[in-house]
């Protein structure tokens, strides 16, 4: 392109290289067009559908600093399956004195037997550890439209006539949530939240009017490089990103034993009394148990065979070792983007191998 065009809907610079970035327009749509709107705005205008868009770390944080200078309600959406991987560190300091509504999405992935009140208390404790004291916490399954009414009520109660900014990392279901709001309230002007079919003109954001004075803004999603999977193939992603309720897999291990989760995670039980390890990852990922002495020859040599996905040895990710000391009972070892393993009993030493660059941490067990 010889001149820089801007989307007439949201103001983002027009580009035709990356459909996950703001301002994307297919090349075919740029021919003989004096006025251009990006694909994201086009889909909102014609289909009432918001598409997610990614933003690099520094650009995203610059946008967050801008929010701190506004008077608004900030909605922060996190993924309950990947709580740590979808948490924005230092979030409270970016949004200033603005109230924060914390929404926890994809709760349909957790076992139905999980007590909702216990989950809410766990979330509040985790948020407090991260320095955030939300005004309210709402549990969601935006895909299944569960919790949408409660979310809308909480937004209306907390915003006090102000604008609302919806924030979050990529793939937390931010746009799915907004689309659910549009579907629920867009055709009924008597509801608290009403919407327009047309986006606003705020750079890199989508504006959905709430009333004559205020709007809800969908902000771009932060890319978290510590989440595993961004650079894996679509076929593989379907294997390790869960779509249904997680079925916990329980393994009774003695020290010196190893479990592999596909070709992505290796966990060595190095030291401790016999213990129970519960795997909460995609139901499609097979778990293979073996002796620690055999583990070195299995990865990557048996990737695509005993260990899969991935499906070819040459696609096996490089694994990096992390030593985890378990001191409390019922502790989760979290692998960002893949799920977690719950260690039932305390006083255990574990080596966990994960794809290089993937975030690993431990926490109080969620289940």
Automatic annotation (TrEMBL):
InterPro entries: G_CP_dom, GTP-bd, GTP-bd_ribosome_bgen_YqeH, Mito_lipid_metab_GTPase, NOA1/YqeH-like_C, P-loop_NTPase
Any one GO molecular-function label of the UniProt entry: GTP binding
Location of the CP-type G domain: 57-225
Superkingdom of origin: Bacteria
PANTHER family given in the database record: GENETIC INTERACTOR OF PROHIBITINS 3, MITOCHONDRIAL
NCBIfam families in the cross-refs: GTPase_YqeH (TIGR03597)
Protein name: CP-type G domain-containing protein
Species: Marinococcus luteus
């Amino acid at each position: 392109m010889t001149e820089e065009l801007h989307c007439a809907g949201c103001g983002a610079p027009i580009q035709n290289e990356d459909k996950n970035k703001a301002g994307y327009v297919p090349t075919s749509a740029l021919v003989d067009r004096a006025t251009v709107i990006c694909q994201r705005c086009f889909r909102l205008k014609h289909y009432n559908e918001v598409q997610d868009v990614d933003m690099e770390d520094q650009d995203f944080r610059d946008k967050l600093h801008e929010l701190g200078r506004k008077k608004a309600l900030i909605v922060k959406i996190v993924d309950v399956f990947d709580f740590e991987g979808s948490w924005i560190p230092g979030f409270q300091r970016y949004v200033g004195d603005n109230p924060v509504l914390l929404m926890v999405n994809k709760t349909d992935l957790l076992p139905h037997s999980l007590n909702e009140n216990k989950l809410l208390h766990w979330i509040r404790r985790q948020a407090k550890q991260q320095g955030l004291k939300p005004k309210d916490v709402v549990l969601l399954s935006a895909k299944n439209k569960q919790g949408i009414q409660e979310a809308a009520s909480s937004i209306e109660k907390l915003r006090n006539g102000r604008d609302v900014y919806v924030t979050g990392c990529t793939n937390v279901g931010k746009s799915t949530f907004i689309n659910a709001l549009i579907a629920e309230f867009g055709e009924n002007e008597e509801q608290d939240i009403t919407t327009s079919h047309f986006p606003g003109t705020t750079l890199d954001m989508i504006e959905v009017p709430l009333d004559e004075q205020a709007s809800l803004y969908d902000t771009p999603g932060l890319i978290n490089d510590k989440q595993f999977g961004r650079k894996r193939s679509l076929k593989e992603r379907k294997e390790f990103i869960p779509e249904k309720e997680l079925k916990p897999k329980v393994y009774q291990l003695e020290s010196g034993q190893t479990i592999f989760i596909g070709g992505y995670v290796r966990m060595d039980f190095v030291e401790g009394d016999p213990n129970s390890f519960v795997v909460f990852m995609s139901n499609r990922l097979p778990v293979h148990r073996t002796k620690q002495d055999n583990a070195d020859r299995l990865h990557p040599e048996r990737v695509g065979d005993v260990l899969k996905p991935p499906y070819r040895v040459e696609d096996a990710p490089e694994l990096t070792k992390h030593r985890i000391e378990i001191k409390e009972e019922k502790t989760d070892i979290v692998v960002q983007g893949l799920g977690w393993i719950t260690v039932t009993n305390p006083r255990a030493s574990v080596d966990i191998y994960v794809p290089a660059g993937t975030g690993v941490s431990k926490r109080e067990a969620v289940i």
